[in-house]
Write a structure and sequence with these properties.
Layout: E1 4-7, E2 10-13, E3 18-24, E4 33-39, E5 46-51, E6 58-60, E7 68-73, E8 78-83, E9 92-99, E10 115-116, E11 120-125
Parallel strand pairs: 2-11
Antiparallel strand pairs: 1-3, 3-8, 4-5, 4-9, 5-6, 7-8, 9-10, 9-11
Length: about 130
Amino acid sequence: QVQLVESGGGLVQAGGSLRLSCAASGRTFSTYAMGWFRQAPGKEREFVAAISWSGSMTYYTDSVKGRFTISRDNDKNTVYLQMNSLKPEETAVYYCAARRAALVSDYRIPSKYDYWGQGTQVTVSS
Protein backbone atom coordinates (compact mmCIF):
# COMPACT_ATOMS: atom_id res chain seq x y z
CA GLN A 1 0.00 0.00 0.00
CA VAL A 2 1.26 3.48 -0.91
CA GLN A 3 -0.24 6.72 0.29
CA LEU A 4 0.44 9.87 -1.70
CA VAL A 5 0.09 13.47 -0.54
CA GLU A 6 0.50 16.36 -2.97
CA SER A 7 1.44 19.89 -2.02
CA GLY A 8 2.68 23.08 -3.62
CA GLY A 9 -0.37 24.15 -5.55
CA GLY A 10 -1.73 27.66 -5.46
CA LEU A 11 -2.55 30.77 -7.42
CA VAL A 12 0.02 32.08 -9.87
CA GLN A 13 -0.03 34.60 -12.70
CA ALA A 14 0.40 33.49 -16.29
CA GLY A 15 4.08 33.02 -17.01
CA GLY A 16 4.82 32.17 -13.40
CA SER A 17 6.18 29.01 -11.83
CA LEU A 18 5.15 26.47 -9.23
CA ARG A 19 6.79 23.37 -7.85
CA LEU A 20 4.52 20.54 -6.87
CA SER A 21 5.62 17.84 -4.46
CA CYS A 22 4.19 14.41 -3.85
CA ALA A 23 5.25 12.66 -0.67
CA ALA A 24 4.80 8.91 -0.52
CA SER A 25 4.53 6.62 2.46
CA GLY A 26 6.01 3.16 2.58
CA ARG A 27 9.42 1.63 2.14
CA THR A 28 8.88 0.55 -1.46
CA PHE A 29 8.59 3.98 -3.07
CA SER A 30 11.74 3.45 -5.09
CA THR A 31 10.15 0.48 -6.85
CA TYR A 32 7.21 2.49 -8.24
CA ALA A 33 7.03 4.48 -11.41
CA MET A 34 5.32 7.80 -10.81
CA GLY A 35 3.11 10.07 -12.84
CA TRP A 36 1.49 13.48 -12.69
CA PHE A 37 -1.98 14.05 -14.12
CA ARG A 38 -4.32 17.02 -14.12
CA GLN A 39 -8.05 17.48 -14.35
CA ALA A 40 -9.84 20.70 -15.17
CA PRO A 41 -13.55 21.19 -14.40
CA GLY A 42 -15.71 19.31 -16.86
CA LYS A 43 -12.76 17.59 -18.49
CA GLU A 44 -11.20 14.18 -18.26
CA ARG A 45 -8.08 13.55 -16.27
CA GLU A 46 -5.08 13.95 -18.54
CA PHE A 47 -1.49 12.82 -18.43
CA VAL A 48 1.18 15.42 -17.74
CA ALA A 49 4.44 13.64 -16.97
CA ALA A 50 5.89 10.33 -15.76
CA ILE A 51 9.18 9.10 -14.36
CA SER A 52 10.62 5.62 -14.02
CA TRP A 53 11.47 4.13 -10.63
CA SER A 54 15.14 5.02 -11.03
CA GLY A 55 14.50 8.44 -12.52
CA SER A 56 16.43 7.53 -15.65
CA MET A 57 13.41 7.82 -17.94
CA THR A 58 10.95 10.68 -18.12
CA TYR A 59 7.96 11.32 -20.35
CA TYR A 60 5.88 14.44 -20.96
CA THR A 61 2.77 15.39 -22.80
CA ASP A 62 3.69 17.53 -25.77
CA SER A 63 2.13 20.73 -24.44
CA VAL A 64 4.45 20.89 -21.40
CA LYS A 65 7.74 19.81 -22.95
CA GLY A 66 10.44 22.36 -22.28
CA ARG A 67 8.43 24.00 -19.49
CA PHE A 68 7.74 21.24 -16.94
CA THR A 69 10.26 18.93 -15.30
CA ILE A 70 9.47 15.78 -13.35
CA SER A 71 12.02 14.47 -10.89
CA ARG A 72 12.20 12.24 -7.85
CA ASP A 73 14.23 11.78 -4.70
CA ASN A 74 13.95 8.18 -3.57
CA ASP A 75 15.74 8.92 -0.31
CA LYS A 76 12.96 11.37 0.55
CA ASN A 77 10.13 9.31 -0.97
CA THR A 78 9.12 12.34 -2.99
CA VAL A 79 8.40 13.13 -6.62
CA TYR A 80 8.34 16.69 -7.93
CA LEU A 81 6.85 18.60 -10.82
CA GLN A 82 8.53 21.90 -11.61
CA MET A 83 6.18 23.98 -13.74
CA ASN A 84 7.44 27.07 -15.53
CA SER A 85 5.77 29.52 -17.91
CA LEU A 86 2.35 28.45 -16.72
CA LYS A 87 -0.70 29.21 -18.85
CA PRO A 88 -4.28 29.95 -17.76
CA GLU A 89 -5.53 26.85 -19.57
CA GLU A 90 -3.37 24.76 -17.25
CA THR A 91 -5.61 25.60 -14.33
CA ALA A 92 -6.62 22.24 -12.87
CA VAL A 93 -6.34 19.89 -9.95
CA TYR A 94 -2.99 18.14 -10.24
CA TYR A 95 -2.66 14.56 -9.05
CA CYS A 96 0.30 12.32 -8.53
CA ALA A 97 0.00 8.60 -9.06
CA ALA A 98 2.10 5.49 -8.53
CA ARG A 99 2.27 2.25 -10.47
CA ARG A 100 4.06 -1.01 -9.84
CA ALA A 101 4.49 -1.77 -13.50
CA ALA A 102 7.34 -0.36 -15.51
CA LEU A 103 6.65 2.59 -17.77
CA VAL A 104 5.68 1.09 -21.07
CA SER A 105 3.41 2.41 -23.77
CA ASP A 106 0.38 2.74 -21.48
CA TYR A 107 1.88 5.29 -19.07
CA ARG A 108 -0.54 7.98 -20.28
CA ILE A 109 -3.61 6.01 -19.13
CA PRO A 110 -4.87 6.87 -15.63
CA SER A 111 -6.34 3.41 -15.02
CA LYS A 112 -2.85 1.90 -15.35
CA TYR A 113 -1.79 3.52 -12.07
CA ASP A 114 -2.38 1.78 -8.77
CA TYR A 115 -2.41 4.61 -6.22
CA TRP A 116 -3.49 8.26 -6.30
CA GLY A 117 -3.13 11.30 -4.14
CA GLN A 118 -5.96 13.65 -3.26
CA GLY A 119 -4.79 16.34 -5.65
CA THR A 120 -3.63 19.92 -5.32
CA GLN A 121 -5.28 22.91 -7.00
CA VAL A 122 -3.26 24.98 -9.44
CA THR A 123 -4.87 28.19 -10.64
CA VAL A 124 -3.19 30.31 -13.30
CA SER A 125 -4.61 33.79 -13.71
CA SER A 126 -4.40 35.74 -16.94
